[in-house]
Amino acid sequence: MKKGVFLYLFSLISVLPAFAQMRTLTGTVTADSSGAPLPGVTIHLKGSTYRVATNPDGTYSMNVDGTPELLFSMVGYSSRELKVGPAMTRLDVKLQSLSSKLSEVVVVGYGEQSQQYTTQAVSVVKAADFSNVPAVTPQQLLQGQVAGVSMTNSSGLLGNASLLRVRGTASITAGTQPLFIVDGVPLNDGSYNTAYGGGASLNPLLEINPEDIESMTVLKDAAAAAIYGSRGSNGVVLIATKKGGYRQKTQIKLDYATGWVSPAGKIDVMNGEEYVGFFNNYITKVTGAAPITPPAQTTDWPSLVTRTGRNNNYALSASGGNEKTRFYIGGNYANDESFVIGNNLQKLSGRINLEHTANKHLRIGVNFTTAYTNMDRITVESGTLAPYTRGLQNTPVTPAYTADGQYATPTNNVLANINLSTNKYYTRRNTGNAYAKLNITDYLWLKTDWGMDLLETEERYRRSSKLGSTGTAGRAIWQDYKWLTTNSVNFEKRFAETHYVSLLAAHSYETARYDDIRVTGTGFISDLLPNVGSAATNTGNATGKAWGLESYIFRGNYRYKDKYLFEGTLRRDGSSRFDGNNRYGNFWAVSGGWIMSEEQFIRDLGFIDYMKVTASYGVTGNDRIGYYDYMGLYTAGVDANYGGNAGLRPTQIRNPKLSWEESRQMDLGLAVHVLDNRLQVAVNYYSKHSENLLLYVVVPSTTGFGFATRNAGEMRNRGVDLQITGVPVKTRDLQWTTTLNLGYLNNKVLSLPPDNRDDEGRNYILSSYNGQRVLQGHSLNTFYLLRYKGINPETGDPEWYTKDGKTTSTPAAKDQTIAGSAMPKWTGGFNNTVRYKQFDLGVNFYFSYGNKVMLTEFKELDNVYKNVATNVSRDLLNYWQKPGDQAFAPSATSASWKNGNSFAQQSTAQLFDGSFLRLKTLSLGYNVPAGLLNNTHILSGARLYVMGQNLWTVKSKHFRGADPEVSQYGTNAQVAGESYYSLPQPKSITVGANLIF
């Protein structure tokens, strides 16, 4: 007994020195490239089973003694083995990212996820993918970068919105654009235009500086977008701005670029000599007009309304941080001058992002940007006073100036209209959020976020008395102010090394107030008086409205052995756009994944580095209609007066049953990386079914109203997204990275209300005045037109096809038939980056295939039988003169010119194949060697570059327009692919420099 006690005491005394040497080692593990903290890094004490993991903020704490060796490891990062010094109590470690994209942490709804473990269909575009690309707005940076995302610039007009489709369009007359979210703040995306406000709606991302963007994440399937519930049906684009890095030396960056801009294409109209000859030899026979005498000097109108545009862009930023604080401060000034006169844009913006760790429990931050734009906007782009339109319509025998240098006929002179008028458009925008994160434990934290988007736009126009009457003026101000708050509880923990659980519960409230006021004035004593208040007669009106959205959000993630993945999302939204009984809707998604490369039978294959299959199904919604479409509304004012007394009149029928539009989406995905991650393939199949569509449709006339918003109709989008990334060459001095992304889309309208039916009994909605319909059983943007055959070589008369395929020279409306769709079947991009020593070369293509475009300008440019003489297409020079001629235009004596001017009527003669392949960007850069920079003692990095955009376009040989990339109505997906003198895309050459201090 005594011996046992003695041995016990001896053992205890012998280990006391070891206990005395035990100490606590702390530190932070960060990413080497960005300085961002890395949560979940495993720290293993070699030679034992003792291991810990880093906290969500990258910190760790563990007990050590002596000089042990520690192994730091994390999926997607190179492991590091480090020896702890004998007296060391702190060890900060940086891990280097592997080349694989698996290591990336992607921004998702209300959080972040590792690319390796996500079960969502998301695509990420990093700042490196679009660095130094001159872009007015961020949407342009997505073109050709993401499979399944189709982006069509409405035209070359500065500031216009683009038509962006994520896996097709889930709606018809409700909102059809993705939801844009910047640092957690959903942006306003209303339309703020009047008759003088330009063509398509303004771009909702106009005020964002592309230089401030760190990444753009596109949420494509229901698993990703359902967490945004009522606004996720058309996809979500999350924009994360730059934040700086912890323990990062302050870095100052100056970027400057200047460029020259011209139109990427043109429409050929007749010059002076051609027009005089054609008029005297052809038009006189058609119309009976007297011949014209050639003037001493003709006018080249297309040259007068275009120019070599210029752009200049300055961006200055500073970023960095210490152990507790990181920051990013950026400022930008851009001055863009279009290639068409009267269209200029100046933008000034500033951003500050700041994050501070107050202690181990509390982290606070703020993201804030302010921006101001000053635009010279031409009047409605397709209007008769727009410079590009008039430049093509004016005949070359119409003088621009009188003999004494004054404007000739100023009321109809586009040069006078531009130079004697002002048409200013201003935007002022403040967007940002402030947040606080409270860590209750290492695995449980609370977060509160307060955001705002305060947008004010203003239009001012003034027309000189020299342009008619005694002068006119107008001013309009729109205010769209949004506030939101989100509060969440988050849980993230790993159990027993094999189970990982992440939970989110949140409440969000969002509200916005819209107000506008508009005044006009006529009659000015002098053109020196620019303001509306100086007019002899003033009129004005004002409106205001508001909406709100309350949301309850839940999401759970579970991983077993880091190879079996599960996720569930539920969101309940309450929208003020619906009556109380239908106000709330439930949106949800479930998804799962299997990382097959973690299985031994896949590892045994040897060449597969990573393989994952995923599946998801869920429901998203849409409430983006008018603020009060469910109410019975009345109006007061001038048009409601009775006998000179104030009154009310009904303007909208009540519809308390109006409810949510829903889209059910299924997604199947496969991702495979092989050959040491040098070849990466991702393919997804999806099917999205939208039902209870929010349609603005005809209502029975017995109601006393013509149209109303109703729930009716179904539509389906099916397709495949494919993305292939490869590194064909990788040596010390040379590396070539190439990416091909493809998106295939099949859209079909399954059902529509039976209010309108065509001759074949199919339900339809008339989309526009240019022959486009939403037709049951066919794609959304279906053209319904007469089919033009051509000029009969024996008679010189134009001919068309009847509905049953016979030839006729006198077609009727009943002969219209389906003529194709404006919705592309295939879209995508082919992007290449080659780096050789200090040089880098970027070659990016974008393509669209399988769509039609309607160019209605040719209804005028191919028409000579008009009351007002205008210029015409050069193609008309090829007119029929004798039997056997293969002509473009009919005989001058053809009855078609007299028979309702049938040759120039709307038909497939103005419909063209809109497929194209475009060299989107071509850039060459040179990175100044570090040895030379060290001699400056100022610069730590410098890159010089030259870049071209839209340099080369391959299109159908029969295409007659200036540019196949058109969508006259901007974000209105119901009438895509139409043009009326839309400006072509700009072709530019840019030179620039990036300097890092």
UniProtKB/TrEMBL annotation:
Q: Which domain of life is it from?
A: Bacteria
**By its UniProt entry, which Gene3D superfamilies does this protein fall under?**
Carboxypeptidase-like, regulatory domain (2.60.40.1120), TonB-dependent receptor, beta-barrel domain (2.40.170.20), TonB-dependent receptor, plug domain (2.170.130.10)
Name the family the entry cites. Belongs to the TonB-dependent receptor family.
Q: Where in the cell is it found?
A: Cell outer membrane
The species this protein belongs to is Chitinophaga rhizophila
Q: What is this protein called?
A: SusC/RagA family TonB-linked outer membrane protein
Task: Kindly give the SUPFAM superfamilies that the UniProt entry links to this protein.
Answer: Carboxypeptidase regulatory domain-like, Porins
First and last residue of the signal peptide: 1-20
> Which InterPro entries does the record match to this protein?
Beta-barrel_TonB_sf, CarboxyPept-like_regulatory, Plug_dom, Plug_dom_sf, TonB-dep_OMP_SusC/RagA, TonB-dep_OMP_SusC/RagA_CS, TonB-dep_rcpt-like
Q: Mention any Pfam family matching this sequence.
A: Plug
What keywords would UniProt list here? Cell outer membrane, Membrane, Signal, Transmembrane, Transmembrane beta strand, Transport
Assign the protein's first listed, main location to one coarse class: membrane
Residue ranges of every copy of the TonB-dependent receptor plug domain listed in the record? 115-236
This protein's membrane topology, according to the annotation, is: Multi-pass membrane protein
